[in-house]
Design goal:
heterodimer; A: mainly alpha; two-stranded antiparallel ribbon; 14 helices; 2 strands; globular; B: mainly alpha; MetI-like fold; 76% helix
Chain lengths: 330, 315
């Protein structure tokens, strides 16, 4: 309400610099006023809890005595000893990395293929494009349940068809087989079947996300570029390699980073499919176990913290090596 | 950004096409071969994609209208015979627990309540911030903007522990309001991001005109900016609704002990762990859980995908 008179009087008095400064000051005040509520909410529901996690990780804290516990005090490094010393910690870390890399690569790759296939119009493209996003928008509990039933050795369609049509000797318990022996050309391999299955699930659920972004980017590539390459006789693979891929690369890199971060901390999908058993016990599931099975808040916080620090370290490495390159391209 | 990336690949393309001019014939045939090969491959890929995205949902629907005996008898059957077809599964899953059902109707109510509450709270919290970082230059604006994005990187597992403790302490465990508050943490960053992108596309001149007409900043936002940004607000609201509707981890942490407060996701998961409820009844539960989200999504698909990817085509 103040604004109108000041803007009108300022030019008349001729104090132009002062007018600019006061407009900037007003904008500054308005900005602070507008951002404060959001900032406070983020502070309360996100930043403070995270800081508290850091505190808890260095405290001896169990859920039973948390009621009377003060915010500070009870310091100990015991939690980290518990985390690093607990059986299966390192293997679970390795599982997390495998799961994350596999799912990220899988979903971005499948998303890329899908974006390329749906690039040119055909009848029913709009509908297919929309329905391809279903795995991403559908509730995770529902789709995980469908996968569980479909892959079940007793009720599942996959095993029924596999034994009847593909000649499998026995039904395969996809979600509870730690390692499955496969013989190919006389060689025997042990395949971590349950882990591969959850990676396949994750790929299936998140390729629409990559697809959406890649398709949007693909459609923004100027037609002329590809047309020119086509006139010059470049084959589709060449056009992809030299025209489209350089255009898509920034988006692909961003998607990989995003998917990596999300999958690294993913809890729901694995918990729902395997409960963290059969060689799929990723660190996020261990955090949950510490919290709910042993009520050991300190150890759970330490475990979550270790996971977050590791993620940041990996991202740091990534940005140190690749961000410079991306920036040069930009 | 665009100009640099488009000029960079040009040299290799030119170098590549300079060579084939001398040996035009074999190159052309490679191009033609590939053209044909990818023409076929494209159809196969499209069919494959349609298969993997639609079949699981068709399978869900199919199993939800079968009695469990029919499923056990022939798990591989891809249709349901007229004599097996039943809607008793839906009836059982929706009936209140007091009457021997699984009480999903009540859970649907809980889920809707939490989701709508989350949408309202998140929008209230996110709109001013999104407006400020997209429009106003102020002290620390860039840092705050970066913080809002960085929040996205913090894992839910980091939040789970302190929130679990905090709620245990405040006695908010088993409360839907508490759950909605927790969901704000999950949805605020992405909401700010989506709305910020849209706010920047609204011409600044409109706001200046409103200011000259004597609107205060708050009035300008309420009467000019928000109505113009309505598509984006709706897309953001829908997206928040879906996140809240689908959420599982925090529902599990906070509500597991209070069956009358269960959300559909939680109820479905907890019941599917046991053996008492037959799988086809739970399949009907999955359909009940999935259908609202799907309807919303198809109703607003354009709006949603554009809201999410706006800006992606510029990077």
């Amino acid at each position: 309400m103040n604004a109108a008179p000041t803007t009108r009087t300022a030019p008349r008095t001729g104090h132009r610099p002062r007018h600019v400064a006061s407009a900037a000051a007003r904008e500054n005040r308005a900005g602070l006023a507008f951002v404060t509520p959001t900032f406070v909410v983020v502070l309360v529901v996100v930043v403070l809890p995270i800081l508290w996690t850091v505190l808890l990780a260095f405290q001896h804290a169990r859920l039973v005595d948390i009621q009377g516990m003060s915010l500070l005090g009870n310091w100990s490094l015991e939690n980290f000893g518990k985390v690093f010393g607990s059986p299966g910690f390192w293997s679970s870390l390795w599982t997390t990395v495998l799961y994350t890399v596999g799912s990220t690569a899988g979903s971005v790759f499948l998303g890329l293929i899908a974006a390329l296939a749906l690039r040119k119009p055909f009848r029913g493209r709009g509908l297919l494009r929309a329905s391809m996003l279903l795995p991403y928008v559908a509730p995770v509990v529902a789709v995980a349940f469908v996968w569980e039933i479909a892959l079940s050795p007793q009720l599942g369609i996959v095993n029924d068809w596999g034994t009847r049509l593909l000649g499998w000797d026995d039904p395969i318990a996809f979600l509870s087989t730690r390692s499955y022996e496969v013989s190919l050309l006389g060689l025997h391999f042990d395949v971590p079947l349950a882990l591969l299955t959850v990676i396949a699930f994750e790929t299936w659920r998140y390729f629409p996300f990559a697809f959406l972004f890649l398709l949007a980017r693909l459609q923004a590539v100027p037609d002329g570029l590809e047309e020119a390459a086509k006139v010059d006789g470049a084959a589709p693979t060449q056009r992809f390699r030299y025209v489209l891929l350089p255009e898509l690369m920034p988006v692909i890199a961003l998607l990989c980073v995003l998917r990596f971060i999300m999958t690294f901390n993913k809890f729901d999908d694995i918990y729902l499919l395997t409960g963290g058993g059969s060689g799929t016990d990723v660190v996020a599931v261990r955090v949950y176990d510490f919290l709910t099975a042993r009520f050991d808040v300190g150890a759970a916080a330490a475990q979550a913290l270790v996971l977050a620090v590791l993620l940041m370290a990996l991202l740091g490495v990534y940005f140190a090596f690749f961000a410079k390159k991306t920036q040069e391209e930009a | 950004m665009n100009s640099a990336t488009t000029t960079r690949p040009a040299p290799p393309t030119r170098g590549d096409t300079a060579a084939p001019r001398a040996t035009a014939r074999p190159r052309m045939s490679r191009a033609r071969f590939e053209e044909r090969f990818f023409g076929v491959a494209r159809r196969l890929v499209i069919a494959f994609l349609a298969l993997i995205t639609l079949v699981p949902f068709g399978y869900m629907l199919l199993l939800s209208v079968k009695p469990i005996d029919a499923l056990l008898l022939d798990p591989g059957q891809l249709w349901v015979s007229a004599k097996d077809f039943t809607l008793a599964t839906y009836e059982e899953v929706l009936r209140p627990t007091a009457e021997g059902g699984q009480g999903f109707l009540g859970m649907l109510g809980n889920t809707a309540l939490v989701s709508l509450g989350t949408v309202a709270l998140t929008m209230l919290a996110a709109i001013p911030g999104a407006y400020a970082v997209s429009r106003l230059r102020f002290f620390g604006g860039r840092q705050v903007s970066a913080l809002f994005l960085a929040v996205y990187l913090f894992p839910a597992t980091l939040l789970a522990v302190p929130l679990f403790v905090m709620f245990a302490r405040l006695g908010l465990q088993g409360s839907l309001v508490g759950l909605a508050i927790v969901y704000i943490a999950q949805t605020v960053p992405v909401s700010i991001y989506m709305m910020k992108n849209y706010f920047t596309t609204i011409p600044y001149g409109i706001e200046e005109a409103a200011a000259l007409d004597g609107c205060s900043r708050l009035q300008t936002v309420r009467k000019v900016v928000l109505p113009l940004a309505l598509p984006s607000l709706m897309a953001t609201g829908l997206y928040i609704f879906m996140i809240a509707w689908n959420e599982f981890l925090f529902a599990l942490l906070f509500l597991a002990a209070a069956p009358d407060k269960w959300t559909v996701s939680l109820g479905l998961q907890l019941l599917s762990n046991g053996v008492e409820v037959s799988k086809t009844v739970l399949m009907a539960g999955s359909v009940v859980l999935t259908v609202p989200v799907m309807l919303l999504f198809f109703a607003a698909e354009r709006l949603l995908t554009e809201g999410l990817t706006s800006g992606a085509d510029k990077s």
